[in-house]
Amino acid sequence: MEEVEEKEEQKTVSVQWPLKVWSLTTSVRTSSPLIQCITNFVSMDIMANTLLAAGASPAMLHALQELQDFTPHIHALCINIGTLSPDWLPSMKSAAQAAAQLGKPWVLDPVAVFASEFRLRACLELLGLRPSVVRGNASEVIALANASTGTGKGVDSIHESTDAVDAAKSLARASGAVVAVSGAVDIITDGQQVIGVHNGVAMMQKITATGCAVTALIAAFIAVDPSHPLEATASALSVFGVAGEMGMEFARGPASLRMHLIDALHGLDQAAILSRVKITSIE
């Protein structure tokens, strides 16, 4: 009897997800949260355009001298170490400290954390500043959870997202952050619950910085629902995946998919969300 009740409860949760996703999508559009992005040169454009298409307000601001005046006014912070340099790390740490002190949610994208000791040390320092969410590919999450290098290929993952479930749960418990692992199925966990997002298309991986873009979108969603980071993170990943699916219907390749994805994100309506969102609980 208990097993039956548990299965019924899981079905109910799954049915409620599309409504939750639509609610958060409309909240981002109506409140237009200000999202500060300290990110890499490759991703600035697509991150800013993703945020604008979703209804948020992007600010690609990283000068250390401006943070004291600017960061207190943001609704969420996104830190991405893609083109990390010693000059930018103090700004990242200062902004994260300010966000934490002010109770603002912030999201860490540990791009290629496995590639060098410099990146690994920087991410571990940032992780100590209590991000609300960590989003990476499977190799990044495994490396960060194990505090080790050498588990990826350039900036690409050599693992599937499902390979990183245990590492993600461990990292979530150790850091207090929700951990999201991007892949064919996106995995999201708070260390106890594990959620799977089954939206998106494979060609999104052929567009540079789509992972960076969805991290920024997570920041926008968590800005409007900071008390529920697991739900906000899963919702953002699903919305981005749905936009990719809809964009792929018109795309002829990666370049046109990039354009159509952003258009689809801007034009998402309730019917599309309710019919396309695929989020499940994972044992």
Total of helices: 11
Secondary structure category:
alpha/beta
Side-by-side strand order of the widest sheet: 2-1-3-4-5-8-9-10-11
Low-pLDDT runs of 5+ residues are: 1-15
CATH C-level: Alpha Beta
What CATH calls the topology is: UDP-N-acetylmuramoyl-L-alanine:D-glutamate ligase
Helix content: 40-55%
CATH architecture: 3-Layer(aba) Sandwich
Instruction: Indicate the mean pLDDT.
Output: 92
Question: Secondary-structure element sequence?
Answer: HEHEHEHEHEHEEHEEEHHHHE
Radius of gyration: 18 Å
**What general outline do the C-alpha atoms trace?**
globular
Please report which band the strand proportion falls in: under 5%, 5-15%, 15-25%, 25-35%, 35-45% or over 45%. Answer: 5-15%
Spatial gap, N to C terminus: 18 Å
Output the CATH homologous superfamily.
Ribokinase
Largest sheet at a glance? 9 strands, mixed
The number of E-state strands comes to 11
Can you tell me the number of structural domains? Answer: 1
Describe the structure.
This protein is α/β, with parallel strands linked by helices. The chain has a single domain, classed as Ribokinase (UDP-N-acetylmuramoyl-L-alanine:D-glutamate ligase). It contains eleven helices and eleven strands. The protein has helices at residues 2-31, 44-54, 64-70, 89-102, 117-127, 138-146, 165-175, 210-224, 229-248, 254-267, 270-276; strands spanning 34-38, 57-59, 76-80, 106-109, 133-137, 152-153, 156-157, 178-182, 186-189, 194-197, 279-281. The strands form two sheets. Strands 2-1-3-4-5-8-9-10-11 form a nine-stranded mixed β-sheet, with helices on both faces. Strands 6-7 form a two-stranded antiparallel ribbon. A hairpin with a 3-residue loop joins strand 8 and strand 9. Helix 6 (138-146) crosses helix 7 (165-175). The longest helix is centred in the first third of the chain and has 30 residues, at 2-31. The two termini are 18 Å apart.
